[in-house]
Amino acid sequence: MTEFLTMHPAKAEFKRLIELMGWSQTEAGRRLRKTPSAINHLVNPGHRNKPTATMMELLKVIIAKERPGIIDGQTIELKDAGTGAKFDAAQFSLREREIIEGLKKLSVKDQEVVYSVVKALLRVAGWKGGKTKR
Q1: Half-sphere exposure of 4 toward its Cβ, with a 13 Å CA cutoff?
Q2: Are 89 and 97 in contact (CB under 8 A)?
Q3: How far apart are CA 105 and CA 124, in angstroms?
Q4: Which of 46, 62, 115, 130 has the greatest number of CB atoms lying within 10 Å of its CB?
Q5: Cβ–Cβ under 8 Å, residues 59 and 27
Q6: Cβ atoms of residues 70 and 78 within 8 Å
């Protein structure tokens, strides 16, 4: 978990997009014409290499072509889930989907406990979010 909290934003976005597609580092490398080792450097928080703006744009174009529901073809940015659009699980990374599915299996009481713990951890990590309404 701390990996995403301390990772450079460009690396975190790159990793999230690859996970969103369900690609291995080998598959991401094949599609971006990079070696798996080069992709590993780009997602490794301890390595100095970061994805270039061109590589990020290429990745988003590939995603927009293959899964147009999650990338806006005009802006080449992730579509905003907060615009009233219907919920699309594809907008979430594999890790996020696993957490959501796990939460669904808990009782409402246990969900509230987990929400409180996660919010407290996010605040410790610098999150400035407010209370959410259900």
Answers
A1: 12
A2: yes
A3: 26
A4: 62
A5: no
A6: yes
User: Per residue in 73-131, pLDDT tens?
Assistant: 555 566 654 444 444 545 566 677 778 778 888 888 888 898 889 889 988 988 877 65
The fourth-level CATH superfamily of domain 1-79 is lambda repressor-like DNA-binding domains (1.10.260.40)
The dihedrals phi and psi of 42, each to the nearest 5 degrees, come to -75, -25
Specify the residue for token string 């590993």.
Answer: 40
Supply the pTM of this predicted model.
Answer: 0.54
**What tokens does 49 get?**
């290499």
For the beta carbon of residue 78, count every other beta carbon within 10 angstroms: 17
Rounded-to-integer distance, Cα 33 and Cα 47, Å: 20
The two tokens of residue 62 are 């590939």
> What's the length of the chain?
134
